Hints:
By secondary structure, the protein is α/β, with parallel strands linked by helices. It contains 18 helices and 9 strands.
Amino acid sequence: MKQNQINQALQVALAANVPVLLWGPPGAGKTATVNALATAIGWPIETVLASLREPSDFAGLPIIVGDDMRLAPPDWARRLCETTDAICFFDELSTATPSTQRALLRVVHERVVGDLVLGDGVRMVAAANPADVAAGGWDLTPPLANRFLHLFFEVDPAVVATGMLGRWPEAQPLTIDEHWRDRISHHAAVIAGFLAARPAHAHQLPDHHESAGLAWPSPRSWDALRLVLAAADGTGISADAHLGLIAGLVGDGVAIEFLSYQRDLDLPDPEALLADPGSYQRPKRSDQIHATVAAVTTAALERLTPARWTAAMRVFAAIAAAGSVDIAAGGVRELALVRPVDAEVPDELTVFGPVLIAAGIFVPAESTAESSAATASKPPSQPRRSTKRSPAKRPSTKPAVVKTAGGGSR
């Protein structure tokens, strides 16, 4: 990816709060790009050189405080806690030893340094040279690699030539829609449909250790992808930057498959279905039905009200009536666990049969009332006489003892 594409993809990832790792040869300008972007968007940046750090710099230094042991965080972590929005930049990450990489796991994913929890506004960015050209380089361990969105920096000769004349391009801040989170449910539904059609891509750890140190699909990377795609909506980023975001989380091959699937997928708007459950029309492919159920479920859960819960259940009933009972049952099960107290249970749910009712997932209000009335009309039950027969006594096999008048026995 060229520098302008890197800037676009990097800003989307920062907005979605997904950790980013820039790969590129030495001297390509990775560090300068990150610093320039931080200046353009007005965020402070704290640079931590991985090659100069030990595991305790990330896991915390054990100290004794009174009768307790604490893990003291380093100064750079304390400074980050004093800010609202900031970038924590781990430079030369591929020079970190495996033990230091292990200590970084919790920092990158949970934003915890020692006993200090960094704020949600702290974004994680890293830069690395490929291990074969890094000074004392190491391949990234698969657990650490899978926590990042990987972007690959390409040197653009035209940009370098212009820069030599004193006109290095400035990072252009993107306009991120403040309501981008409303689109998460849509992209989650698309991903759900894709994984229903291609379940092998849900988790695919590469066999080769070098590939395992880059991007590969996992539940964690798919979860990050729904956030990144939602944040990218409406930004106008280039097609290459868009592809780079997807490939940076799930790998090149899976990214191309996903994009192809996404282009061919025609999903109804979940909000339109919630407004009019009767408007559902059965698509041709089962993966599209999976995606529709996921979209409606996610949309209902994001703003759960009694009316939206009932509407979602009516959508699932319509999907079942169209011949997809098993797929719709997944949405019914999930929403049945969070039914609002005042939510009406539609009569149409009987299409799922007595199995779900017997399992206690839901009980229609009418059935409950009828059961209560029937119980009240019954006469008091009489205690039942046991029909179980007592076991017959077995004759004793011991010899009888007869006492004599003298107190003896014979």
